[in-house]
Design a protein that fits this description.
single chain, about 100 residues, alpha+beta, about 35% helix
Length: about 100
């Protein structure tokens, strides 16, 4: 899996992934969450790709005291292969920097 920063062109694939993994809620618009993240620490919004397809995400944040991970998701057809651990480890590394 190749891990890289989110790009606006990933939006639909990411929202579909979040819906497929049950992360979206009716009261929480994922498109607005993406817009907000792109205004604050966009470098901490990651996607994981396999063969050019987005199969994983991790959205991290740092408030100066604590690091947080949101929207950690792996496509159900790719779960169990360690991709979630890879995304988390990559996000943690960025937070430690």
């Amino acid at each position: 899996m190749h891990i890289r920063p989110f790009d606006v062109s990933d939006t639909e694939a990411v929202v579909q992934l979040w819906q497929a993994t049950g992360l979206t809620r009716p009261w929480n618009d994922p498109y607005r969450d993406i817009e907000r993240k792109l205004r604050v620490q966009p470098e901490l919004f990651l996607v994981g790709e396999v063969q050019g397809s987005v199969i994983a995400t991790a959205m991290a944040g740092y408030d100066g005291h604590r690091g947080w991970i949101y929207y950690l998701a792996v496509d159900p057809s790719h779960q169990g292969a360690g991709f979630g651990r890879q995304m988390l480890a990559h996000a943690e590394g960025l937070l430690l920097e």
